């Protein structure tokens, strides 16, 4: 076993890309990177809190369980569009859309629902059942 370096960590651990077909064209979806995971876990809560306040919902920040219940009732008109923007990328893994840009979110929201359905199908594809477990799973 070799001792890894900063350079090897960064070079050898890029998120995987997967081709998907939407309509008559091929696109790529990228696995989450660390930044995407952070935005998914923490940024989405911030967005939901802002939406709740804009919708006149008073949030109870002192009770985490109650806050989760309250946020589950908030309507996010761009949830699917944000997911598309985070995942669709070019062959180099660069996002095609900015998930924070309202114009991009509006444009994605106007796409045919089949785009979202195709992305969902691609994301739900299971790993091959005959794949060998790696050493870390023992």
How would you characterize the overall build of this protein?
With about 140 residues, the chain is mostly helical. The protein has one domain (about 20-120). Helices cover about 50% and strands about 10% of the residues. A three-stranded antiparallel β-sheet has the order 1-2-3. Strand 1 (about 15-20) and strand 2 (about 25-30) form a beta hairpin. Helix 4 crosses helix 5 (about 100-110).
Keywords:
138 residues, mainly alpha, 6 helices, 48% helix, disordered C terminus
Write the layout of secondary structure elements.
Elements: H1 6-12, E1 17-22, E2 25-30, H2 34-54, H3 64-72, H4 79-87, E3 88-89, H5 102-109, H6 113-124
Antiparallel strand pairs: 1-2, 2-3
Helix pairs in contact: 4-5
Reading side by side through the largest sheet, how are the strands ordered? Answer: 1-2-3
Gap from first CA to last CA: 17 Å
Number of domains: 1
Average of per-residue pLDDT values: 86
Per DSSP E runs of 2 or more residues, the count of β-strands stands at: 3
User: What is the strand content?
Assistant: 5-15%
Could you tell me the radius of gyration in angstroms? 18 Å
Overall structural class, as computed from helix and strand content, comes to mainly alpha
Shape: flat
Helix and strand sequence? HEEHHHEHH
The DSSP helix count reads: 6
Summarize the structure.
The chain is mainly α and 138 residues long.
